[in-house]
Specification:
single chain; Aspartate Aminotransferase, domain 2; 13 helices; 18% strand; 401 residues; alpha/beta; binds pyridoxal-5'-phosphate; globular; 4-stranded mixed sheet; 2 domains; Aspartate Aminotransferase, domain 1; 7-stranded mixed sheet
Length: 401
């Protein structure tokens, strides 16, 4: 091979900024739930590009849509119309609470758009003193200044101050704490239905329902960040469907275009009135190739019943992890819904386990020193899950107290 892991490492050393703590593997090919590295070794992927490749790697229908659109028109700006963007917005309106969509390129940008829309809409309908954004401790909303200010993890922002004003954080799943801060100055409450980067903590059913009612009663907007929990991962197209509520604004990204960069901010026709020409825009948002990939991804999710699979296989996976929790002394908790799952270790050995899994042909992810997270493609099978669980069982036996 003329390009291998050693070459990639030396290029990173010489030419890349050092802001990723990479694992020592160079993936060169993907298909379905599988990845291959530069030596030809095969892996089962339980990370799926951090939740992006929901329909698996290199799905033929998604490739065909990308190739078809790329050979016709790769890019025009938002100064003009393009068909895939309009069709994707129409499809999202059909399958969600939302009537209007704004497209961008990442989850962070979708959150920035949601914050800007919420503040501008509220300023217009309720006055400029309603600007406070309430979000949860341990949340993650991205790394731009607005999204970082909303993120409830002080460690992510403390060296980058001063931060934008008007952000308040409350403990997650604590309704009295939320009730105590939502008031006359609240613009919006921003929550993840399942806190992903914070460690896969699921919102209690009553909490999200009450947050919805609290926002309605106090005149604030409810923004749900479904960047990680959306696109079928939890066994519903969007996690808030499990709770029987709808937000005023929703942010999505990751799995929407099956692995190409995209973000979207969705809202009602009423709240969408907050944005006029020039209020927000981005060169590549709604790009025709990316939107074609998203249309194909949604089609594959429905045709192959991958959302249902995520629910069923996810329940099987969670059951197996709970079995490990009972049989092994190394785990303290299993959390999550569908194929958004995590286990917490009693010891800080998550990174070692991730490395050992990699050696044994399983790609898994750790959040901090003691949480293992699983975000596989929604097409993952029970056999593949059995293989990973057997591997974990062996590795965890070395971590018991
Ligand atoms: N919001 C949530 C809930 C996320 O999990 C993430 C990323 O993990 C983001 C926002 C930021 O998305 P991106 O990395 O695409 O900017």
């Amino acid at each position: 091979m003329d390009y291998d892991l050693e070459k990639a490492k030396s290029q990173e050393n010489d030419f890349l900024m050092r802001n990723y703590a990479r694992l020592p593997v160079l993936f060169v090919r993907g298909h379905g739930t599988r990845l291959w590295d530069d030596t030809g070794k095969e892996y089962v992927d339980f990370v799926s590009g951090l939740g992006a490749c929901v329909a698996g790697h290199c799905h033929p229908e998604i490739i065909a849509a990308i190739v078809r659109q790329a050979s016709q028109l790769i890019h025009v700006s938002n100064l003009y119309f393009n068909r895939p963007q309009g069709e994707l917005a129409e499809m999202l309106a059909r399958f969600t609470f939302a009537e209007k969509t704004f497209f961008c390129n990442s989850g962070t940008e979708a959150v920035e758009a949601a914050l800007k829309l919420a503040r501008k809409y509220m300023r217009a309908v309720r006055g400029e003193e309603r600007y406070v954004i309430v979000s949860a401790l341990r949340s993650f909303h991205g790394r731009g200044y607005g999204a970082m200010a909303a993120t409830g993890q002080p460690g992510k922002s403390q060296l980058f101050g001063p931060m934008p004003e008007g952000f308040v954080h409350v403990p997650f799943n604590d309704l009295p704490a939320l009730e105590a801060v939502v008031g006359e100055d609240t613009c919006a409450v921003l929550l993840e239905p399942i806190q992903g980067e914070g460690g896969v903590y699921v919102a209690d059913p009553g909490y999200l329902k009450s947050a919805r009612e609290l926002c309605r009663d106090s005149g604030a907007l409810l923004i749900l960040d479904e960047v990680q929990s959306g696109m079928g991962r939890t066994g519903a197209l969007f996690a808030h469907e499990h709770y029987g509520i709808t937000p005023d604004i929703m942010t999505i990204a990751k799995g929407l275009a099956g692995g190409l960069p995209i973000g979207a901010m969705l809202t009602t026709a009423e709240v969408a009135k907050g944005f006029g020409p020039g209020d927000y825009g981005t060169t590549f948002g709604g790009n025709p190739v990316v939107c074609s990939a998203a249309l194909a991804t949604l089609t594959v999710l429905f045709e192959e019943q991958l959302v249902e699979n995520a629910g069923q296989v996810g329940a099987y996976f969670k059951g197996k992890l709970e079995g490990l929790l009972r049989s092994s002394g190394a785990l303290s908790e299993v959390r999550g819904i569908g194929l958004m799952l995590a286990v917490e270790l009693k010891q800080e050995k998550a990174r070692e386990i991730v490395q050992s899994c990699l050696q044994q042909g399983y790609v898994v992810n750790n959040i901090g020193p003691n949480i293992l997270r699983f975000l596989p493609p929604l097409s993952i099978s029970t056999r593949e899950i059995d293989g990973l669980v057997a591997t974990l069982e062996g590795l965890l036996s070395g971590c018991e107290n």
